Each structure stands twice: as structure tokens, then as C-alpha cells.
Amino acid sequence: MAVAFHIAGPTKVQHAIPTALTTFADLGRTDNDDLIRVDISTTNEIITANDTGDSPAEIIYTGTTAVITMTLVKWDSSKWVVLTNNPGTTTEGDGGTIGTPWVSSYSSSTSELFAIRILPSITGEKIYTFSACYLDRQHSGIHEFGNTAKRMRLTINAMVDTSNKLYVVTTV
User: Fold this and answer.
1) What is the pTM of this model?
2) In angstroms, what is the C-alpha Rg of the chain?
3) What does the alpha-carbon distance between residue 22 and residue 168 come to, in Å, rounded to a whole number?
4) Which among 132, 136, 95 is positioned nearest to 115, based on CA atoms?
5) For each successive 10 residues of the chain (172 residues), what is the average pLDDT?
6) 156 near 134, Cβ under 8 Å?
């Protein structure tokens, strides 16, 4: 089952590492031309039994994830380098360490996970904080869109955090 919603712009997007979720730094800004989209997927395991045939005898909930897509019109290029470094590296261009765990090292300094906070510029709108995210490097990058200035396209995967929350909502 998938559910999707959009977050109206313009917004400020911030990020933090999971070990310091109280210290968010500005990553960039979106405009209102390309809304942030959040696609939430719930996965289930269907158990069938001989007496029910193909009909489910039980459905087991196995988790929830989200894919957040956004286009930044302004961004901090030093943060882009940090987000796109390969696993286990701190220097741009390093090849990374094969076998580096991303998820099990959630609260360690070697984790590839980060938090994203989306702050709308309109008073009264919701602030969304996803605290266990990783960057989909194959679908993210800096692009030129026709005759406009360069834009950063981000595809971020989010999962439930150690508190079993996919995201937290507060209000501006």
C-alpha cells in the first residue's frame, strides 16, 4: 500500500547526523515550482493456508518506508559533498569501504544515515522531520533544467528510526 503527499514550497531543508539530531544545518532551499513529494510504502507478508487457497489466512505487517524527492534551487555545496561521500569515507572521491554497514551503525560516527527536516516558509504549516534517511545516489545529482540555473535533485529514502517513527510533525 502506498500513500503520497506533497509539501508546498518554498521550504528550507536541513540535515543532521543521527548522533546529533539536535544540531541541524541548512542543506538548501526549494521553491514553489517543484513541490517536495513524500511516497510512503507499507509492506506486508501474506500468509496463505491450504484450507483458504489463495486467500490470505493472515497478513503480517513487515515495515514502512518513504521516498522523499525534492529539487533544491539553492544549496550548501559542502553539504552535498558530505552526503555523496562513499561509505566509510570523509574525503570527496574516495572509493569507500566495501562491506560498510549503513543501518546497524545508526548511532555511530560511521553511519551513512542522516536526518532531514523540511521547514515551510508559511506560518502555520507543518514541519516534517525524518530521522533515519539515506541518499539514493543513483537518482540524485546537480542538473541543469533547460534555460534555468542549476538545481539539485535529491531522492532520499527514509525508514523508521530507533523510536519506531518514520517521521515527526510539528508546526511552524
Assistant:
1) 0.81
2) 18
3) 14
4) 132
5) 82 81 86 91 88 82 94 85 64 65 55 85 90 83 74 90 91 76
6) yes
